[in-house]
Amino acid sequence: MRGFLRIVFVLVLVLCGWHCQGQTPLINLSGKVVDADSLSPIPSVYIYVPDQETGAITNENGFFSIRIKATDTLVFSAVNYQSKFYILPDSLKRGSPYIELALSLRTIELSEVVVQGHLNPAAVRRYLDNINKKKRDENPPNIYRDKPTSEPKTTPKGREHTVSLGTSTKPEGGAALEGALTGLANLFNKRAQQQKRIAVLLEARRNREAQETYREFINSRFNEDVVAEATGLKGRQLEEFLQYCNLSDEFIYNASEYELLAAIFARYYRFMDF
Question: Please, what is the Cα angle at 273 between 267 and 274, to 5 degrees?
């Protein structure tokens, strides 16, 4: 009987120990939150306890008070400050502990921003003149490379033809004269056709030279050097912007220097936003 009572007593002690472990007592934690640099109090700091889903907020003097378990983890967070996790050390897990916690300001890195001043025609003209002067200094004219855009016009000289209208003693002399006139007409007809073919070739040549001059003018106003100097872009980013810019040849040809540079900058700002 005595052994049975002893076993029952041991079981009761074990059950009481389990019950006490399951009900961890709460403690009153109070404290103050300050700035890590100025040590001034930080109001409206939110203290959150994830395990209990409860929290508290510091007052205008940075003070707070909250009931937690000794094993709880606290999260301190505030606007413009880095969040901080806090666990009570063993020396503060009894009674009503008091703590002081410092939060550091959150540092935000901003990407580089290029600021462009207000555009005006005089500034744009000076800017483009400097670019053209720089290109001329780097690439001086070469008499063997830089040929004149137009050549003096020359009138092709045809071969001189002589036609003899000999006389005939035969009665059919009129037929001989008619044949000579026919040959003369054919000769002028061939010369006219030849001059027409030459005129077509000259016109095609002038059109080709005009197209080349047109293309050279467009390339001189809108190219990698001009865009890179204006925007500061280079490498792969410059290539992508040139494809994105997509200005028409007609606009590049007819636009003023100010309108052309303004269009480049407008597309540059949209490109950087993307």
Answer: 90
pLDDT at 21: 47
- Axis crossing angle, helix 235-245 with helix 257-273, rounded to the nearest 10: 110
Quote the strand ranges of 36-82, DSSP E: 46-49, 54-57, 63-69, 73-77
Tokens of 274: 């993307």
pLDDT in tens, 170-187: 455 566 666 666 777 777
Asked if 77 contacts 83 with a C-beta cutoff of 8 angstroms, the reply is yes
Closest by CA position to 183, among listed 166, 163, 167 = 163
Question: pLDDT tens for residues 92-126?
Answer: 888 889 999 999 998 766 666 666 555 566 676 77
b/e string for 246-258 if b means 16 or more Cβ within 10 A?
Answer: ebeeeebeebeeb
10 Å Cβ neighbour count for 42?
23
Q: What is the 3-state secondary structure (H, E, C) of 150-219?
A: CCCCCCCCCCCCCCCCCCCCCCCHHHHHHHHHHHHHHHHHHHHHHHHHHHHHHHHHHHHHHHHHHHHHHH
Longest Cα separation, the chain: 177
Cα–Cα distance for residue pair 44/60, rounded to 1 Å: 7
Q: CB 226: neighbour CB atoms within 10 A? A: 20
Calculate the CA dihedral of residues 204, 210, 215, 220 and round it to 10 degrees: 160
Sequence spans of domains, the chain: 25-103, 121-142+182-273
Contact 156, 198 (CB under 8 A): yes
Indicate whether this model's pTM tops 0.90.
Answer: no
25-103 classified as CATH 2.60.40.1120: yes
Would the pLDDT of 246 be above 50? yes
